[in-house]
Task: structure prediction
Amino acid sequence: MPFCAKCGASVDAGATFCASCGAPQAGVSASTPPVSTVQQTQMQENVAGLLCYLVGWITGLIFFLIDKRPFVRFHATQSIVVFGGLQILGYVVGIVFGVSMLGGVRTMSFGWAAYSLVDLLSVVLWIVLMIKAYQGERFRIPIAADIAEQIFGKS
Result:
């Protein structure tokens, strides 16, 4: 049975106008699907790659689980390793120097500098990796990309 190209309602085989919306039916064929049929469109790879880094390792994990395209999986695994590792490093620096702050001001200033360096590195990597992913590049962080390939396999 043919369908209306405008509203998707079923139309009689010889009808020249749709009974539902009144649109002309010159090119109606039985193989024309209804307009209401939802077409799935996939997100572009570069946008999905950028979104892998948006909220750090969390969005990397989400995209690793839902998207099977190699480009997106590469950025997802790298996001998990880079930002997961930097978050763990931040906790370790905070714990080590937070406990040793009782020792004096000099230790506290070194701990604050180390913690600030981890934060600065995170922000710079976050921006660079999102830009490179949006440009369609497989920009590899030397140590993190190798660890990601070992843990999650080559994508």
